[in-house]
Design brief:
The structure is a homotetramer.
Chain A (H helix, E strand, L loop, with lengths): L3 E3 L17 E2 L7 E3 L4 E6 L14 H4 L9 E7 L7 E10 L6 E6 L17 E8 L2 E4 L2 E7 L3 E7 L3 H16 L24 H10 L1 E2 L3 E2 L2 E2 L11 E5 L7 E7 L9 E6 L2 E10 L2 H5 L6 E3 L10 E7 L13 H17 L5 H10 L3 E6 L7 E7 L11
Parallel strand pairs in A: 1-4, 3-5
Antiparallel strand pairs in A: 2-12, 4-18, 5-16, 6-15, 6-18, 7-8, 7-17, 8-9, 9-10, 11-14, 11-16, 13-14, 15-19, 20-22, 21-22
Helix pairs in contact in A: 5-6
The structure holds zinc ion (ZN) (8 copies).
Protein name (chains A, B, C, D): Formamidase
Pfam family, one (chains A, B, C, D): FmdA_AmdA
Organism (chains A, B, C, D): Cytobacillus solani
Chain lengths: 392, 392, 392, 392
């Protein structure tokens, strides 16, 4: 096993760790350690909320979560010899859980604190705990299903340059200002509350806390992409914006459905990840990988081959209004259709919703040009159920 | 082989066929034939443009296509004993091509006549011809790739009730009226030009032509969903809105990438399709399949397992503006990123664009809740190329 | 579709066809037609018994089959410019059935006339008819299962040189002579009875009939390999032994289980096959493909991913005798174990036996070195059954 | 993670462990621990040779291995309430390696000490060391390949009853006596040398050592089946022959090719395995699972989908002699054909041989009835090579 280069005490919050991680993106957050290209190493990760959610049957911790704290990350790792313009090649060698932490959680955020994809339909907080047994997971809160996880980091990314950071802050602030009082906010701009910034202290801490971008959204640096197939055996090519690349990782998921629609999230867990880094010098220009990372998924995702698929189109379900080729609405309709179907099997709406956010369901953009309706689908693997779910 | 119940002469346009098909949705279009539940039958289909595009090297026919004519459909089929409230179960048994028509086309529509997903980047008409050899296709216009088709009907649907039709026309007209002069139009409302309405004639023809919804968008009845995995061996459950269900089909694709992003389209072809129909009485209510069809994909899609995946986020590529969780922009960025990469392999932008619209690429909604950025991906099977396309 | 270069009238036996095929291997059987490398073409094929088995419910035709007639082949095809020492590259583009012949058969041969892998357990003739519906098949004689076929030619091969033919005849005769009266025979040496030899006539016919090797076994030239994954989209590399290679094909199977254990056989059918030929000059030496063909399977086999697997070891089931690393006995035991299990689901032994020979079951050699027991397995896809077959 | 119920010190041989395991099958070997049905637990395992093979570049340890010591097993586990006639249900939850032991070995045994499937062609000892990086492995001794392991226990089984044990000893002795001086032996009958028998001591040890069957072959109790797909997520149904079932496990493989043809073996490793046990009361009779275990493979094997396949027939490669439907010879020929091909890529014969025994190659029995030739194939995943290996 690769050497553990980043170690945590899960009983403590991030800022009390020997090497505190970070929950903001900023080029000036000091590296936790450095490695040469070609090195494999292990990093331990807190769950994305920094341990706020407990293995019990009440959703109150979901309801009351402090979202200023998310997502806490492990790192950054400084990769020697890597410079802006290079591609950082990252292999996800393996991911696992801790013996004392063989479970994960999923939750629906309350509309007033986080919200979710279907928050207008499911505005109340809910929670499900998922137990792990080897490659499989089950939940006492969503009975009748068992599936193999596609374990992956929801969030992995490199540090932005100051220039790129500034661009992020500007464009997100501009969006936020179009409706500054909206709940949930259109964007979460820099906020010093609950910031964790590695070993920074004093004035430097205050400056970076005021400038650092939230770790919630995915951006040019990768970040919180929540791509369920970025699993064991995957190789990622990151554009590099700062010296050493400064790679960070967190938000481990035992499994997630495409879209991570409940927002909280996949099956969220603490755990460890084994990474190996390498570099392609000058690769950003050579391969035109400049805007976002590119990756090759690993070969060991579960072999589910039997799906029941729900379609949706871009007509608003509440007022029947026609939208123009809107994939969000189409996917929302597909998910709502799936939930209505799952309810005929005996699930509550909340259970069905959490199932779509945790099981390896596939969310597709099928038709995005057939004016005026986009068509999206959500595909549910039938083999995860303990009974036949087909219409008869 | 099932008996051919709907036969075409491909050298003639739809209205000159013995049983003319239709290119509008309307409950009053007479059935071409009727069958009992449990029956398998073959239907022949013209390509979606009714033969306007030719196997040659000029894109002029794409540029000048008459879109008032699309999509021409075969049918409708009246299924005996089926009534509103039932589910019509349709098995796609097989799909094939005609000996004299062993090719298909893909095209980028010009911005002024149809447009496409990336029309601001690729406003000029382009065309690629794809030759079929058994399960494989290649194109003289997009060299270096060969892939197995996931053959499917881009469009299959049942007739709307008058009430449902009215709802469609109202909501689409309302959208159109928000920007009535837009090119391309926000929606295409009923238009008697180039209408084909089966055997209707005279005043009845005129009435239906004036009321009939365009066949371009997918809707509650299925229709032009352009779902690439609705291929051989699939079973679809349609909500039924009129007596006999009145099933129609067309727009056959030898293959299509998720999104069908060039709009024209997948690999468009004429061909035949073998269907089998059955009924679940009262199934709409029982299974809550009321808003859109549900389906189970067939088991014989190509086993491509090695992908290179491109990410995109919801920041506009032209002005850098941040959009709120917008899957359309995120998927657009993913596609543009893929095209830039493919250009480093020697393809023109247009070739790369048409490749994304024809090869079995997978378009995913990965994260749709990480405020403010949606994350979408487009995954390209690497095994379709005649060389190694990975970054090195 | 490729041009049909070899056409049959299925109502007539092979020797009455315009171009009679052949049921013996001999270099002097004249080519039915010739093509250039790079050409695609269609050939029609009679079922392997030349039409002896009928779509009815009696196994008498299986019991009384004339095995001197099998396997009748279409061809040979002379490929211009191909010479001994080359590799003949054959692409299997597509395979299909005839409208009037949408069914196939499987049978257990009687011990006295053909026998089978489990002939000591199932010595009586039996038959099952399998109906095709698109990619799927079902049988009125083996209820409760439906599966997608992995359609393939059981037999495809090139002509032997005279020298190679002589080697075959010698080694097979030597084996036969070790127990000349055995039933079934240890080997079937040349036998003029029921020979079909293309257009040969008179003395030349008599000579070749006396020398020609039976088409039953697989050999260096390919031949009756009965490899179920040699399906649509596969590419085969044949060593070439005579000028023009002289490729022949037949014994089409809609589906077959590994081992083809009932001998008759897979789901045997008449049909057509589209092939494309090419050449690698001098390839036999360059790639050391000299002893047997090599191939790359196509990418569209059914995606069955859920199996129930039965093990067997090399201890004789009748007398309990230990055999040394004997894969035949181990596979026999695995099959017998599977049959006993399937009988608990309500099947007769004969039904279960025919199911193993027709469905896409996988037969593996798992351990072949663990002295003294070989371990083999037979894996049955659970998704082909209309109920849950797992132990509970 | 399940509680570790069986712990090892890898620096010591089995008999010096706190709970010594065993390397003979006998009902009287005391259980190492007991669990209730429904319990998950972890067991640690020594490699099958009990640590005789080292991570270095000389094959001398392979050459000189003491085979009287193999296979050392962890256990047995007594499962409370389980009785003869029941089925023991075993879930393989997870398998992994130790931090200090991130490598495995493969070797070709010398003809005089163990031999192998192709021992007449490769009589000398050879060794390859395989390093693990997450899900992948590579070898400095077999360059140019990298693959994802299908990690599994080569050996897992329950204790025989005294009666069954006696049957084994009799039938194996009878075979051995047909050629008592053969090298390697036809069977390895009980041999007290190097026996490890758990906590047994004194006269009881001596008795059991004299009676206990070797753990090398697979038998009715499962045992050394070397089934590469019995990997993570699999469920096995064992017939039960003694009270408590007495389950043992060992011979962990990071990966193995079908047949394990070099005999030593797959990629052999020490490691841990998480199991969960349950029972189906009276299941042996109900499901007729009496002769051998039955299993359902897990869903996370690597998604290799592109294979190059080599055929072989049952003609002896040395003397050209025809054998009757002999799968062993056919598979041997297929493997030899594959090796000759791999040599054209630059591998030595020994490297190619070890690659076939370690990579996830599939060994099939394709045709076992086409008198007189069996046809077997070995399929090599092309995606494991760092270059294109197809003939051109
Ligand atoms: Zn996330
Ligand atoms: Zn998450
Ligand atoms: Zn379409
Ligand atoms: Zn189309
Ligand atoms: Zn055959
Ligand atoms: Zn056959
Ligand atoms: Zn073993
Ligand atoms: Zn082993």
């Amino acid at each position: 096993m690769p050497k553990t280069m980043y170690k945590l005490d899960l009983s403590k919050p991030m800022e009390e760790q020997i090497h505190p991680g970070h929950n903001r993106w900023h080029p000036d957050i000091p590296a936790a350690f450095s490695v040469d290209p070609g090195t494999a190493f292990r990093m331990e990760c807190q769950d994305w909320t920094d341990g706020q959610i407990k293995n019990n049957d009440t959703p109150n911790d979901i309801r009351d979560v402090n979202l200023a704290r998310v997502h806490v990350l492990s790192g950054p790792v400084y990769v020697n010899g890597v410079e802006p313009g290079d591609l950082l090649v990252v292999d996800i060698l393996d991911i696992g859980t801790f013996q004392e932490y063989e479970w994960g959680f999923n939750g629906i955020f309350a509309k007033e604190n986080g919200g979710s994809f279907l928050t207008d339909h499911y505005p109340e907080a809910a929670k499900s705990i998922w137990d792990f047994e080897g490659i499989y997971t089950t939940s006492r809160h969503v009975p009748g299903v068992k599936f193999a996880g596609v374990i992956h980091p929801g969030l992995i990314g490199v540090a932005p340059s100051l220039e790129l950071l500034q661009k992020w802050n500007e464009r997100e602030n501009e969006l936020k200002m179009t409706d500054p009082d909206r709940v949930p906010a259109l964007a979460n701009t820099p906020n010093p509350e609950a910031a964790v910034l590695g070993t920074l202290k004093g004035a430097e801490f205050d400056r970076v806390a005021k400038e650092g971008a939230r770790t919630v959204p995915p951006r040019e640096n990768g970040g919180n992409c929540d791509i369920k197939n970025l699993s064991k055996g995957s190789r990622i090519y990151f554009p590099v914006f700062v010296k050493g690349a400064k790679l960070s990782v967190g938000d481990l998921h035992f499994s997630q459905g495409d879209g991570e629609i409940t927002f909280c999230g996949g099956i969220e867990m603490a755990g460890w990840i084994d990474l190996k880094v390498d570099v392609i010098k000058g690769g950003m220009e050579k391969y035109k990988i400049k805007e976002n990372p590119v990756f090759k998924p690993g070969p060991v995702d579960p072999l589910y081959s039997d799906f029941l698929v729900f379609e949706g189109i871009s007509v608003d379900e509440k007022d029947g209004k026609q939208h123009y080729l809107d994939a969000n609405i189409a996917y929302k309709r597909a998910c709502l259709n799936a939930i209505e179907y799952l309810k005929t099997l005996g699930y509550t709406g909340e259970q069905a919703y959490m199932l779509l956010s945790t099981a390896p369901v596939e969310g597709r953009i099928n038709g995005i040009v057939d004016i005026p309706n986009a068509c999206c689908t959500v595909a549910i693997p039938t083999q995860i159920f303990d009974k036949d779910i087909m219409p008869k």
